[in-house]
């Protein structure tokens, strides 16, 4: 992309001009004295304000990278209770659905790329499919664009870093107790105590249960505890030890509704659909209370030791994690066209039983020094990780086929079908399905096993030439090895492995026309090796890709960042061009090779600020123009394997299509206003454009705008009530589009009231 020739570049430069002029005026007035009491009132959490990772070797104002931060305050104001709730505040992020092979859990798409395996906690990769909570989080950091220089293997769109709460030298306890519609009940405790000289302990507790608003039967039930203790908080040598435990036991609502299949021939033509979801009634739940479940567990222990010696800091952080994700849930299947043909639905099951253990250790050295007239701020380190996954499933006897047809076709419903077929318009989740079925865990001796080991070394340096110019450089080397073993009863196991090493880098130049503004140009890369998911995600290793090189993504970005109105308002804007030039696709001989190409051009705008002591805002807009430039070849005769005669390999008809799970336009806004008598009112909106579920762009979910509202009242300084209304207009919309069978519907309107006490 030539930035100078795009309309978006012109718009960006037009936007920069008045900002620079205002910034210059602010700089001229910066000598005016201000009272310290006025400064103390400013509590801005900027969209690039406080990154936790030491790999950011400059303030985010001077970092040539797009980074969005969702603060703890924003999470609390919006009533978020999960990672997905928190990420609604970041435009440009959509969510993918799960199935059996692709697990159900957090699956964010950042700038059009699946980032399920790009989630970190305190800078260390958080492996394993989970539905993550926020009760132990200080903030969520979203690094956009290829990020392998920062964290190693990466899908190309960006990564998430979840920042945990840690002890501090302050006695403080916060308690929140909430109740609401749809049987909502939630309680959290965040308690910090100073135990001695430089010693403090912190305990976070959470219990949550609720039904799903606007949906029959489905519910969530979870609890968590996160204790930690710190030594030497007032000394150069520090040690922080913590553990995180969470369990869930849900009746999952992962499915929603099937698509209206766009049949092209045969007896279904008269009932041809347009590819959008079929919704006879939003409340309809096609699962079964006496069968469906999702139970997860996470146990993660961390030891963080550091020593600060002047301008340099040595740190070692080690983590031992053990997570599991077990589920069996009903997917509303449309593969036989039952809803259109008969007004029925086949209750297809998706099942998974995964355990994942991992050990990660990161040793780093950070600091600053000068060489002549150049100022350096650096971060360098080594990492080692060892991930071990075992994956089984849940099986049923006699099974889920319709016994009347011997297949998944459902001309009728009821007991004679084993309740595997249900009425599409009026399903009954209380059907006694299990009376004639046995559900059992698959033979653990036949579980798929995957081991992934990575050894890495990295270095970052921000070199400041003068007050106006600096460069940011980052380099990382990864030695990656993964092996998957699938036991076969009575035979030798099937083994796939991939051993690769790859180098990635991040480079950018920053120009500061004034001290509170920057303009940058950056270039970054990422590598996506086969088996990227460690055996528990959406990018697995198999016979077709085991011998291939990593996919390589590159990103060119032109952006600007500004602190305005004495740091009360922070603005960011960026243009970017991202290319994946060796995507894994099927070529004209039927093999999978690194031969495809995907391109995305985009623009994003972000803003956050405390415009006055009473008025705060947060929001942004993202435009993503995605294209499958070269999606390989396909057989001219429909076939799952090979290309049988008389078929021939032809260029993919999906060439030129939009990326799946990618909204062309997305935006969000959240604003609050505090009145002098203790009342705070807040409101926000989230917009997402139409998204396709598949590369063929035949199945899709429509655009939507969701509205939320909040009101809180301070009864006294340390006691407040907070009312949140989610999906204020009770909008019927979808948040996830699976590639083939179904789309996930969003909750309806809900209201919660929380009593918050600090002491």
From TrEMBL:
**TonB-dependent receptor plug domain residues:** 60-158
Residues annotated as signal peptide: 1-23
Reply yes or no: does the keyword Membrane apply.
Answer: yes
Q: Where is this motif: TonB C-terminal box?
A: 742-759
Q: How does it sit in the membrane?
A: Multi-pass membrane protein
Q: Does the keyword Nucleus apply?
A: no
Known SUPFAM superfamilies for this protein?
A: Porins
Compartments (UniProt record): Cell outer membrane
Q: Which PROSITE patterns match?
A: TONB_DEPENDENT_REC_2, TONB_DEPENDENT_REC_3
Q: What is its main location?
A: membrane
Which InterPro entries does the UniProt entry name for this protein?
Answer: Beta-barrel_TonB, Beta-barrel_TonB_sf, Plug_dom, Plug_dom_sf, TonB-dep_rcpt-like, TonB_rcpt_CS
Which stretches make up the TonB-dependent receptor-like beta-barrel domain?
254-728
- According to the lineage, what is the superkingdom? Bacteria
Q: Keywords on this record?
A: Cell outer membrane, Ion transport, Iron, Iron transport, Membrane, Receptor, Signal, TonB box, Transmembrane, Transmembrane beta strand, Transport
Family of this protein: Belongs to the TonB-dependent receptor family.
| Xref: PANTHER family | CATECHOLATE SIDEROPHORE RECEPTOR FIU, FERRICHROME IRON RECEPTOR-RELATED
> In its UniProt entry, what is this protein called?
TonB-dependent receptor
């Amino acid at each position: 992309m030539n930035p100078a020739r795009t309309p978006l570049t012109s718009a960006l430069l037009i936007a920069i001009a008045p900002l620079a002029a205002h910034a210059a005026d602010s700089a001229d007035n910066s000598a005016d004295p201000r009272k310290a009491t006025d400064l103390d009132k400013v509590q801005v959490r900027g969209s690039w304000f406080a990154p936790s990772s030491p790999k950011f070797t400059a303030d985010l104002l001077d970092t040539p990278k797009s980074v969005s931060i969702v603060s703890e305050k924003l999470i609390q104001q919006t009533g978020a209770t999960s990672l997905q709730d928190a990420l609604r505040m970041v435009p440009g992020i959509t969510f993918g659905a799960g199935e059996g092979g692709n697990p159900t859990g957090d699956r964010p798409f950042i700038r059009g790329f699946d980032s399920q395996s790009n989630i970190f906690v305190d800078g260390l990769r958080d492996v394993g499919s989970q539905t993550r909570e926020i009760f132990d989080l200080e903030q969520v950091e979203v690094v956009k664009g290829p990020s392998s220089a920062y964290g190693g293997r990466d899908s190309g769109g960006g990564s998430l870093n979840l920042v945990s709460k840690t002890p501090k030298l302050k006695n403080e306890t916060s308690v929140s107790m909430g109740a609401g519609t749809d049987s909502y009940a939630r309680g959290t405790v965040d308690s910090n105590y100073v135990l001695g000289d430089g010693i403090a302990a912190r305990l976070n507790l959470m219990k949550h249960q609720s039904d799903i608003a606007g949906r029959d039967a489905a519910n969530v039930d979870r609890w968590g505890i996160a204790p930690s203790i710190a030594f030497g908080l007032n000394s150069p040598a520090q040690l922080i030890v913590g553990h995180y435990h969470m369990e869930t036991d849900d009746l999952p609502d992962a499915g929603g509704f099937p698509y209206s299949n766009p049949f092209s021939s045969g007896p279904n033509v008269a009932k041809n659909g347009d590819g959008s979801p079929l919704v006879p009634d939003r409340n309809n739940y096609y699962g079964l209370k006496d069968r469906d479940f999702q139970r997860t567990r996470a146990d993660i222990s961390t030891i963080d030791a550091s020593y600060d010696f002047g301008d340099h800091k040595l740190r070692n952080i080690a983590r031992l994690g053990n997570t599991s994700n077990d589920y069996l849930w009903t997917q509303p299947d449309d593969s036989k066209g039952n809803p259109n043909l008969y007004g029925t639905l086949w209750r297809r099951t998706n099942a998974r039983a995964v355990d994942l253990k991992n050990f990660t250790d990161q040793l780093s050295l950070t600091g600053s020094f000068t060489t002549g007239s150049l100022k350096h701020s650096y971060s360098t380190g080594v990492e080692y990780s060892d991930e071990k996954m075992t994956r089984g499933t849940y099986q049923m006897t006699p099974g889920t086929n319709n016994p009347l047809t011997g297949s998944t076709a459902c001309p009728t419903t009821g007991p004679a079908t084993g309740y595997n077929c249900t009425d599409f318009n009026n399903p009954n989740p209380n059907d006694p399905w299990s009376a004639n079925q046995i559900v059992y865990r698959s033979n653990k001796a036949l579980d798929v096993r995957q081991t992934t080991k990575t050894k890495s070394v990295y270095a970052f340096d921000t070199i400041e030439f003068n007050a106006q110019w600096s460069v940011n450089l980052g380099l990382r080397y990864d030695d990656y090895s993964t092996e998957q073993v699938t036991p076969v009863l009575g035979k030798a196991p099937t083994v796939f492995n991939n051993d690769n090493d790859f180098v990635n880098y991040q480079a950018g130049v920053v120009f500061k026309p004034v001290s509170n503004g920057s303009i940058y140009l950056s270039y970054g890369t990422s590598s996506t090796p086969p088996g990227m998911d460690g055996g528990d995600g959406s990018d697995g290793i198999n016979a077709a890709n085991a011998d291939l090189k990593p996919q390589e993504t590159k990103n060119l970005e032109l952006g600007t960042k500004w602190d305005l109105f004495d740091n009360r308002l922070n603005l960011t804007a960026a243009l970017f061009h991202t290319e994946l030039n060796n995507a894994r696709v099927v070529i004209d001989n039927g093999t999978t090779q690194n031969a495809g190409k995907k391109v995305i051009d985009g623009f994003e705008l972000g803003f956050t600020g405390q415009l006055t002591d009473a008025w705060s805002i947060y929001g942004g807009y993202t435009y993503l123009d995605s294209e499958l430039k070269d999606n390989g070849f396909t057989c001219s005769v429909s076939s799952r394997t090979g290309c049988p005669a008389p078929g021939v390999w032809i260029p993919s008809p999906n060439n030129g299509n939009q990326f799946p799970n990618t909204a062309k336009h997305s935006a969000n806004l959240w604003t609050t206003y505090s009145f002098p008598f203790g009342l705070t009112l807040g409101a926000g909106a989230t917009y997402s454009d139409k998204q396709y579920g598949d590369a063929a762009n035949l199945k899709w979910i429509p655009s939507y705008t969701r509205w939320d509202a909040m009101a809180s009242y301070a009864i006294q300084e340390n006691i407040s009530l907070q009312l949140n209304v989610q999906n204020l207009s009770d909008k019927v919309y979808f948040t996830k589009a699976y590639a083939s069978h179904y789309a996930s519907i969003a909750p309806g309107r809900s209201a919660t009231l929380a009593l918050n006490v600090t002491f």
